Amino acid sequence: MTxxxxxxxxxxxxxxxxxxxxxxxxxxxxxxxxxxxxxxxxIPRFETASIALEASSTPKIRLRMxxxxxxSPFTDxxxxxTQDANFQSLDKAQDGFSSSFGQELLRLYTHYFETDGASQxxxxxxxxxxxxxxxxxxxxxxxxxxxTLLRDLVAQDMIAGSxxxxxxxxxxxxxGGVVNGSNVFGGYDSGRFTGEPHRYPMNxxxxxxxxxxxxxxxxSSANGNGNVSLxxxxxxxxxxxxxxxxxxxxxxxxxxxxLPYQITQNFISQLGAEQDNTWGDHSLKLKNAFNGTLSxxxxxxxxxxxxxxxxxxxxxxTPVQDRxxxxxxxxxxxxxxxxQVYLMADYESNNFFLxxxxxxxxxxxxxTFCPKSTPVAYVRxxxxxxxxxxxxxxxxxxxxxxxxxxxxxxxxxxxxxxxKDERNLKRELKRNSQKKLEQMDIExxxxxxxxxxxxxxxxxxxxWRKNKPGLTF
Length: 473
Hints:
alpha+beta, Cathepsin D, subunit A, domain 1, 3 domains, about 20% helix
């Protein structure tokens, strides 16, 4: 089976906005899911929102989870936290932060729709981290190659293998959209992407193992001025030669792109951008509105295009981060990139797939993602033009069909009434003809007369009268 979540985000603000939680308590300490108990390789990370549970057999059962909750001795009397002093995290140690590890029960609350009552799916003896001192951002579930959650789901036969799929959506504050995302554990949503997925190898040596090579960045203007490549040294004469391709890591830790210094300077020059830190991520801001797109072209030709509303929001802030020339940090493709693609990870073969995302899909179609297999997008059946017109066409068709039926019934009724009148007329004519024949027969017959009167005894004939001899009748 597969486990699917339908809302994803990145920050605790996003979680509060959507009323979804990853939480728990143990004594007076804050409990949170250990990101990658696991791993320094914690990409992608996400804030859990809702998860759908779908059986691998037919018919498929779609469920959705509204909360991912950790229980404790003080919140549930049936289960208790069991500390494990020998457990060690693969994540980097954080200054001023100390914690302890142990096993706890995870409850995945599922429901068909957000307004329905929830049912629970239990993940027993899952490893969690309890914060003893210091500060840490809770509410993150690590989904790297050593994810404890993914491992536990596989061990308990709840999913087919160590596979995971993500569409991050736009339903969080930084993105400023309304489309919720989708997580699938052990599978993928075949209706969330289109076309053939592009496969890329994971670089497991990186903290963010999902890396792609970018060979071009193109800005297209809606006013017909053509395409401008930020790699082109003939347009940007400050470069001695065309810019070389570079590797960028896919991450959910930030929203904007972090591109090479020279490419960033070309972006600033082309669109008139300036430094801005409204969101605390040093995203560039345009001085003037721009109605165009930005396309990221990968080495294998797969192109990801940011539409105008993503390239520039209502405040003219772009998803491109300012960068210093001396900066040595990796180049990143953040959630602005993930909002346009569907990501599918196979941790057993160390490969991942990217495909063009279907931004809005009313139907969730989870499919089991077996390790070392290639995901296949759902292909909608071909329908006639009449069917594709939807409800409006059905209503118009029903009206036209109903009128046609009424006309047909009226014509049949008129025809039947005329036939009836003809039959009645024929019967009347036949009846009149028979009467005339009978009358002619009577006129042609010999006349008959009564015999002469006879003499009767009046006393016998009329007893109440006086007898008068000779009286005749």
